[in-house]
Amino acid sequence: MEITILILKIIFGVFFCFAGIMHIIKPRIFKNFIPDFFPKKAVNYIVGFVEFLLGFGLFFSESVKEAAYGIFILMILFLPIHIWDVTRIRPAIGSKKIAIIRIPLQFLLMYCAYLIYINS
What we know:
Elements: H1 2-25, H2 40-57, H3 64-87, H4 96-118
């Protein structure tokens, strides 16, 4: 189980750091994921910064537990946006099928963040 958790920490750390950086250097990719009633640019940069910090936190034993907890909470906050995306005529993710698949995938990712949290 230790190896599995280590692999999850590395994968999540790299993924969240990469996603955070992409929010900053390629903000147009994420603009359609943000509902129109939010200030898109500000939300995009804030989320990118938070994602990067949480991903980076997974690489240090002192902050792994807090980072995993933060990722879990962040994914809970993103869940309504994923559900909203499924209801759109043209989902931001691309196709309706991918938007639908993303919802159960979100729960799987939440479970992985939970595993990192309880095993750190």
